[in-house]
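$ fold --in a.seq
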Amino acid sequence: MDDIGTKTLETERLILRKFKASDAYAMYEGWCRDERVTQYVTWLPHKRIEETKALVNMWLEAYEKPHTYRYVIVEKAHNKPIGSIDCVGFSLRSESCEIGYCLDANYWGKGLMTEAFKRVIEYLFEEVGINRLFGRYVVSNPGSKKVMEKAGMTFEGFQREAFRLHTGEFVDLGTYSLLKKEYYKLYKGENDE
């Protein structure tokens, strides 16, 4: 495994890059204060831009560690940050990571998160060299489940009351994963035989 950290990636419609301090404004306006987006995360909708700036500053400091894989998703057409995708858990020993993502609700249903996710998957398996990628979704969030399915991940099961929302409610999570050998077969058409 080559723990190389966040590197700029590109897709047909998106640029995935490290956050900049100036991204806080687009984050705040686009998704950090939107209850439709934040209903499935641990943090409350931001009430003030200062909260978003503090979060971005914390993330900027984390880039000093090589095992930080955190991207702002920028729509090429308008050069506008519209979401984030990152490894929320990374294990060097197991060569695995958990992926998490948020997207401005105005961009839901357009395949953008799946496009970003597939590019990050490619990077993590081919360049970083992880063995296992997994994601968890709140069962009442079918959009997140669809992203994982469209990326070719395998459903592993449910974890009962495994996540506590910012409201204090405990919710069930569904888990999907993708292994290196599955990635190469699915994405590259390679067989291990």
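$ fold --in b.seq
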Amino acid sequence: MIFGEKEFSKIYDHIKAGSKFDKFDVLINAFDSKLTRFANSVIHQNVAEKNFSVLLRGVKNNRVGVASVNSSDGAKLDALIKNVETIIGLKKEDEDASIVDKWDEMPSYTQFWNEDTAAYTPRQMAESVDIILKKAKSNKIDAFGALEINLTELFFANSYGLKRYNPVTMASINVTAMGDHYTYAGLSLGRNCDIKKIDFNKIADEACDICLRAKNPKDIEPGRYDVILSHQAGENLFGMLSYLGFSARTYQEGRSFLCGKLGSKICGENITLWDDGLDVNGQPMPFDFEGVKKEKVMLIENGVAKNIVYDTKTAKKDGKKSTGHALPANSSYGPLPWNLFVKPGEHSVEDMIKSTKKGLLVTSFHYVNIVNPRDTTITGMTRNGTFMIEDGKIAYPIKNLRFTESICEALSNVEMLGNDPKLMGDSFGGTVLPTMKIKNFNFTSKTEF
């Protein structure tokens, strides 16, 4: 472990002994991050950072103060308490003053911490990256990217004596292979709690293969095309959809695209989406930033919008129970689902390609942004290898296109789902999803590269 539960309990005990709040909670987020970065097929950086933050939320006379510090030193913790007291003195009465006074019992999870990942050395990281570099050099192209290992410990405790602790490991690799002074490229990604389950040879081969096939892209006109979206491209759709509508806060404020649509069909019957922080196949996190046990929440079932997610504040407003999706006390977003799973299908990518008369194979999307949150319209660019499919075969690479599309409309046009679920994500959350074939995806403009 990085610091350990006993060390965090000492911090909590110091705050409990020194504070005069009516009630309080403490969130400690510790991490040990190791990164090996490479460019032009050469490792150019090895860095490591070990740190933690102590976030204190205090409540006094129904007023709330929040502050943080990156230290376990007693004097610094005393200063943290005073900072929170000062903030409270400047606040008006706050309806967010409730702090969880009881939790559902839950076991201590050990399967989220992998010793092989935790013990992976800088030498082993360099050797894993070297597999990729050698593959790129043998293909006379350049490899760029990074291998990252994150060891995280989350500790939560409050003035009611409730405590939670959980350690998690995660390894991730991203590889962009580029040729001819970066004029064409291919992307491949890998992510797992267990680094031994990441196949560096396969990832290198995929990035190099996409890159080599992307050489000399042709210009095509924008319009509506059937598309086969890779895991990375599909993640943008579900990640944005999660952000735009499944938070109880946005729903209560009338900003969610789901307002008035819970219980109604919002996309195709073949789409089922849920959130589950206890599934080790995703990016697990058994409790939220209020210490509440995460519930498995069905968000979309057979195309029908089923539920939204709650933290303590939003649950109280609706007379509900928190689903365990609170963000840290200093966040302004409200609850969010960030352990997503999409039900896979039965088809291979080869099946999808063979079934396509004319369409596009998309490796990844880039610079995706919201256009209209109420109808889930987003926009972005293709990147790192986009290909024309003709008569059931990949015909030639094309220049990048900009798309502007409603996520719900796109998910209403999913023709085929892959049998290849894969974890995508970042340090905050993840999505396990398959590749998808979507009809009539809207591309609105073209590029010169």
